[in-house]
Amino acid sequence: MTAIAMPAPDQAVLARRQEILSALQAIVPGEGVIHDEREMRAYETDALTAYRQLPLIVVLPETVEQVSKVLKYCHDNDVKVVPRGAGTSLSGGALPLEDGVLLSMMKFNRVLDIDYDNRAVVVQPGVTNLGITHAVEYEGFYYAPDPSSQIACSIGGNIAENSGGVHCLKYGLTTNNVLGLEMVLVTGEVIRLGGKHLDSEGYDLLALMTGSEGLLGVVTEVTVRILQKPETARALLIGFPTSEDGGRCVADIIAAGIIPGGMEMMDKPAIHAAEDFVNAGYPRDVEALLIVELDGPEREVDYLIGRVEEIARANQASHVRISESEEERMTFWAGRKAAFPAVGRISPDYLCMDGTIPRRELPKVLARMRELAEKHGLGVANVFHAGDGNLHPLILYDANKPGELDAAEAFGADILRLCVEVGGVLTGEHGVGIEKRDLMTDMFSEADLKQQQRVKCAFDQKHLLNPGKVFPVLHRCAELGKMHVHKGQLPFPDIPRF
């Protein structure tokens, strides 16, 4: 069981487990329903592995009709549902519920259509992020968002968390690259949003769904935008004597009107861990390392490399290396892409945090983070999507040492509060889930949170989809409406008031 408070399990639902199991087996026959405790262990956590909880039942549908029927049954019988993709969520977004069905979408794993004329690909939500690029790269195309887990994470999960990656600075997050969705509402109704066309009429419900963390519906089909690979791509590896120098360089590059294809930063602990793991040729005598990739026409790239080098030298850069081949460029990125597993070799456990700040605040935040590390008595390795201010501090701890997990969580909460304090936000691409749920009041007022919950109520009146995530206090939908008192009687008098 997790230490974070989750909704108390409904004992009436637990008592009906066999009845629910039989109904779901009738909808998804064969091996599509998992109910043995040992077999369900594979689903007890996502990538936020400090927290574990067995689901009531696991269901793996293969068709949209099965998804629709499962959701309709759960809606009609007041059974909670937690949608799940590849389980790579770092915020606990796919943590199961003891009295809830875990709906795994990983059998939806086919590429359905590749349309080069419209530069669009239609896939099922279980297709991996990198799988989309693999499907189109032989024609010189690729899918731009590239989270570090792209070899494993599913496109459906990317939509749930609005994932980004190295190239999101220039080419946008998931929301900027998704054109259309097919989704199933909790009532079982199947709807479509958007398509291959550039824009749709009416409210932008497509953007609303992207980043909704499984609270509004279950995605069953995705249409994404693909891009042609640029003519040229080269990268600079830039080392600095201090992290503050690196932070100022990032801000100066953007201020100069240069938008790199990617701009990533690592501090000394992350540099050494990545170099030990990959042997990418990173300098070990620097406190901060910046990887800046420029792409486009060859002449433009050559010119911009010169401009970036000038800016780096003006910010006290002590090491500048420019890629001279595609192999060398990929080697630069190999260390960064492997930073998370690399840090796993230097600490028994770590929490991967995710907050976003204004770029100009990067030097200040880095300095404050060192103070927080001393306060909590824990190490931290920092990896940043530096260009858009998305921080990924990796807090190092040992879960076998009493109190260290609590200290790591307190350290992480202080980092996220710092992000909000300097004008940033609690998350950039990992989502809120359970990890940041209880910090939402540090960023939003009660009125803000109630308004967000009204959106939830419009899609899920009974709060059956992924409850316990995102909102620290969940109000009943009836309470969020205007409370009209008629003849001294409140509406819905049977509902307990919070």
Poorly predicted tracts of residues: none
| N-end to C-end Cα span | 25 Å
Say what the CATH topology of the largest domain is.
Uridine Diphospho-n-acetylenolpyruvylglucosamine Reductase, domain 3
How many discrete structural domains?
Answer: 5
Taking all residues together, what is the mean pLDDT?
93
CATH architecture of the largest domain: 2-Layer Sandwich
Total of helices: 18
Please indicate the percent range of residues in DSSP E strands (runs of 2 or more): 15-25%
Shape: globular
Overall CATH class of the largest domain = Alpha Beta
Largest sheet, in brief, is: 8 strands, antiparallel
In percent, how helical is the residue content? 25-40%
> Which radius of gyration do the C-alpha atoms yield?
23 Å
Number of strands: 19
Structural class: alpha+beta
Protein name: Putative FAD-linked oxidoreductase
GO molecular function: FAD binding; oxidoreductase activity
Organism: Roseibium aggregatum
Domain FAD-binding PCMH-type: 51-229
Please provide a written account of the structure.
It is a single chain. This protein has 498 residues and is of the alpha+beta class. It folds into five domains: 94 residues, Uridine Diphospho-n-acetylenolpyruvylglucosamine Reductase, domain 2 (2-Layer Sandwich); 118 residues, Uridine Diphospho-n-acetylenolpyruvylglucosamine Reductase, domain 3 (2-Layer Sandwich); 109 residues, Alpha-Beta Plaits (2-Layer Sandwich); 99 residues, 2-Layer Sandwich (Alpha-Beta Plaits), CATH 3.30.70; 53 residues, no CATH class. Helices cover 34% and strands 19% of the residues. The protein is built from 18 helices and 19 strands. Strands 12, 13, 14, 15, 16, 17, 18 and 19 form an eight-stranded antiparallel sheet that branches. The longest helix has 18 residues.
